[in-house]
Design brief:
Strands 6-7-8-3-9-10 form a 6-stranded mixed sheet, sandwiched between helices. By secondary structure, the protein is of the alpha/beta class. It is globular and about 45 Å long. Helix 3 runs parallel beside helix 6. The two termini are about 30 Å apart. The longest helix has 18 residues. The structure holds adenosine-5'-triphosphate. The site of adenosine-5'-triphosphate has 10 residues, from helix 1.
Amino acid sequence: MAAPLLEVRNLRAGYGPTEVLHGLDFAIPEGSITALLGANGAGKTTTLRAICGMVRTSGEVSFAGQRISGKSTEDIVRLGVAHVPDGRGTFTDLTTEENLRLGAYARREHGALAEDYGRMYRLFPILAERRHQQAGTLSGGQQQMLAVARALMLRPRLLLLDEPSFGLAPMVVKEIFEVMREINRSQKMTILLVEQNAAMALKLADQAHLLETGRIVRSGAGAELMNDDAVRRAYLGY
Ligand code: ATP
């Protein structure tokens, strides 16, 4: 197995006096897709925020062999961790292409932007058609694609995705999952995916962790968890 790109040790995090994550331990091998599953409120979003330095934490998070816990979000992004938050966070008054340009802002090497736009438009052809359109006028699915593309403009080594399928039609969800598989395969992009759609996430993921009230209660290969009775009953409905 490849060396871990991200290592999380005894990660605790919370809001104000309330602890939400009670000591998570997991590692993400470079080039893999990892899914984080769990019910509403289990702490999935908080885990992504903790990795990005957006909430108070204790414990240790290392990225590419370097400790990142305690660093600012800006520094963590510059090291190559891109985060697509839930709710997408596109700039609705800016055009598609202006949103993409902002995505490239924090990256280290300033290679040709045009080449990156081209790459994004090949991944998401609909964004090419909408390149001069205000992001706020795009459909929910197109805005989600734009949010993913904007994160990829950073040329990250690790992509954190928070519920990319939320509220989208099945066809669009399928397209977004296909893009995740494609960038993982062709660019060896390491992905940490938070998903409510457990069936699709487990099918895509190399490994998955199940969170319950701030603790990891099950871990395994995607296919393995798909056959786990508790996971099936609680998350797959059969
Ligand atoms: P969901 O699918 O509902 O987003 P989740 O697994 O991502 O669930 P989190 O959003 O990480 O869960 O929330 C975990 C806990 O932290 C919940 O009890 C939630 O109420 C609490 N929480 C989340 N954000 C905040 C905040 N900004 N301030 C205070 N408490 C929060």
